[in-house]
Amino acid sequence: MSEKLTPRHEDYSRWYNELVVRADLAEQSGVRGCMVIKPYGYAIWEKMRDYLDASFKATGHQNAYFPIFIPKSYFTKEASHVDGFAKECAVVTHYRLKNAEDGSGIVVDPEARLEEELIVRPTSETIIWDTYRRWIQSYRDLPILVNQWANVVRWEMRTRLFLRTSEFLWQEGHTAHATREEALEEARRMLEVYADFAEKVMAVPVIKGFKTANERFAGADETFCIEAMMQDGKALQAGTSHFLGQNFAKAFDVKYADKDNNMSYVWATSWGVSTRLMGALIMTHSDDSGLVLPPALAPIQVVMVPIYKNAEQYTSLVAKMNETAAALRAVGISVKIDDDDSQKPGWKFHEYELKGVPVRMVIGPKDLEKNQWEVARRDTLTKEFLPDEGIVDAVKALLDDIQQNLYNKALNLRRERTYEVNTWEEFVDVIDNKCGFALAHWDGTSETEEKIKELTKATIRCIPMDMVEEEGVDILTGKPSRGRVVFAKAY
RNA sequence: CGGGGUGUAGCGUAGUCCGGUCAUCGCGCCUGCUUUGGGAGCAGGAGGUCACAGGUUCGAAUCCUGUUACCCCGACCA
Length: 491
Hints:
Number of strands: 27
Strand order of the largest sheet: 3-9-10-16-13-12-11-24-27-23-22
Distance between the termini: 22 Å
Helix content: 25-40%
CATH superfamily of the largest domain: Bira Bifunctional Protein, Domain 2
Strand content: 25-35%
Oligomer: single chain
CATH architecture of the largest domain: 2-Layer Sandwich
Low-confidence stretches: 1-6, 25-30
């Protein structure tokens, strides 16, 4: 019997409305699965961006920007890359509109056909490597450590809000190095940056690992990833970092002269995370009352709600709230005072729970008299009275505690739903009924991986970086294996 | 792209089988008064090409055809 698998991605759609709405584009446009990110949702993305950007800068990277349009010919240069993306590209064929001769409206001007079609970037490796050819001549030009914040378009067969929209925002790092070792080191360094961000800022525990050849990025020699478990036990790839070998350097003829004037192809990496992270955030922490945001990413960390019966009380409460809010802001806490008179307190409580605000501070005439606040925390939905004296330190500590608690909760869930399995029956039970991660032996072949996917819909999410060397036999074929990999159904 | 489902006011919906005062209800919105420690009450009010385009019919939200978008399941994918 299958246990209730909630909440699943679709169960969160209510909460998504706080952050994002589906784009209501013109009918018949054929544009599917785009999203309008509302200010509250975008504020979260901006916070994510700021944290990541600071980490990129701290590891020596710089931001740059490359065109959204990629000539079709660039795309054909790296064979496996084409294979990976060809089926999901938006293509620009014309550059002009005109009035229809029969007066029926605006039509594409057939005279204005582009000689070479332009691809709306699904990722920027090709146009960036075409550019790097011109930037790189000598070992003195290396490494190039560049990141781009951009939008990309992938014409997916099936879209899912946040997890797979046709257009999404992301960052893509593209680096060029003189040696294989240096490039590998870079790819792994950036994976660490992602893992660190996911766990410390998003409070989302992740498993770091390698992708199998089947799951690897189109054009990569090695793909590193972080995998997270959502509350329904399904896996979500939260970020990837690719070691591209010399594939793109060879495709775009990017060579450098070393100290002895020998010409060599350069080594490459690329790495990215997207607005999918917002989906991960929601699906990891949110509950039936709405969003739950970790303090580090909450646009509003503390909301203050006054309770009063008359104008006189209102005035004194607002004065107190302003004073305390200023003190909280002085230590870097973002505070909203909701003194809107048109809504009742109960309505406001629900509203801010829905929005995931970590801490709510309520004050009424009685509290003012007793020099206290009623302080409620979103993660546990509990409340307590705290003395006004020392309230700033108390709230600061509370925010830290919430951040840690969210991480711990998510980690506990993952631990509870991760099983070491040794037989095919146990494996199927974990995948189909327990709906969790199965740590199982695998014989290392693509054929077996494919077969297991066919039979159970589970894929190898990753070969963990901290995999323990251990003699075992493949869960399906019985062939020898040297360690356990992570199997799960994935979004 | 294949299979299934859905589209009615800003949001959520009833009505569709069986065509005819059926455009229903809730939330939200506007006005007024009373309210304010967990989604307030009463009274009045505004708001809809029933997804779009054809067709059948005296008459279509309802039946037929086509298109489109969304949701779910596949295939694909961050």
